[in-house]
């Protein structure tokens, strides 16, 4: 591209946008079905925004009308009863939970609205993919794509 006459630096098409594809989480999920319930042990490794590791024990009913799941995190000593994600709109879900932390001897409840678009004040797309390796063992990996699109300005004479 030719340099503009007003002394500004030339802008190439490659400099107008930026997309970063980042693997953000890896989960190994060991599952066993026992009398109408699924018992699971999740080993969760997080890459972004910081490196972290969690272990979870999960219990949830197998019925299609399942409305809850029970989770215990031994490292954080946290027990939670969590609702199923409730669709609010096509791309927006609500989830509610109540829990107890044994370290802090505290009871509380949380709610969160989730979507695959946006998050943390950054233009972001998030997605998760699960692969069944063998019966009773799933491998899930999550990724995110942070993007910055060019600013478009102009005027009509």
The average pLDDT is 82
Q: How does the helix and strand content classify structurally?
A: mainly beta
Strand residues, percent: over 45%
SSE string: HEEEEEEEEEE
Rg, Å, rounded? 22 Å
Helix content class? under 10%
Shape: elongated
Terminal residue distance: 25 Å
Q: How does the major sheet shape up?
A: 10 strands, antiparallel
Number of domain modules: 2
- Total of DSSP H or I helical runs spanning 4+ residues: 1
Uncertain stretches of 5 or more adjacent residues: none
The count of β-strands is: 10
Write the layout of secondary structure elements.
Layout: H1 13-16, E1 18-34, E2 37-46, E3 52-61, E4 68-73, E5 78-83, E6 86-87, E7 93-101, E8 106-114, E9 124-134, E10 137-148
Antiparallel strand pairs: 1-2, 1-10, 2-3, 3-4, 4-5, 5-7, 6-7, 7-8, 9-10
Key terms:
10 strands; DUF7781 domain-containing protein; DUF7781; 1 helix; mainly beta; 157 residues
Short account of what is shown:
With 157 residues, the protein is mainly β.
Report on this structure.
- The protein has one helix at residues 13-16; strands at residues 18-34, 37-46, 52-61, 68-73, 78-83, 86-87, 93-101, 106-114, 124-134, 137-148.
- It is mainly β and 157 residues long.
- The protein has 2 domains: 21-75; 76-156, no CATH class.
- Strands 1, 2, 3, 4, 5, 6, 7, 8, 9 and 10 form a 10-stranded antiparallel sheet that branches.
- Strand 1 and strand 2 form a beta hairpin.
- The mean pLDDT is 82.
- It comes from Gossypium aridum (American cotton).
- Residues 12-156 form the DUF7781 domain.
- InterPro entries: DUF7781.
């Amino acid at each position: 591209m030719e340099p503009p006459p007003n002394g500004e630096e030339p802008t190439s098409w490659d400099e107008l946008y930026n997309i970063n594809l980042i693997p953000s989480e890896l989960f190994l999920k060991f599952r066993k079905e026992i009398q109408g319930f699924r018992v699971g042990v999740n080993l969760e490794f997080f890459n972004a925004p910081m490196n972290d590791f969690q272990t979870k024990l999960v219990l949830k009913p197998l019925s299609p009308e399942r409305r809850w799941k029970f989770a215990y995190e031994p490292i954080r000593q946290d027990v939670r009863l969590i609702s199923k994600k409730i669709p609010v709109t096509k791309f927006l879900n609500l989830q509610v939970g109540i829990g107890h932390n044994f370290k802090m001897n505290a009871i509380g409840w949380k709610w969160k609205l989730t979507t695959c678009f946006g998050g943390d004040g950054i233009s972001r797309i998030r997605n998760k993919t699960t692969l069944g390796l063998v019966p009773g063992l799933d491998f899930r990996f999550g990724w995110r794509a942070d993007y910055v699109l060019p600013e478009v300005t102009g005027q009509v004479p």
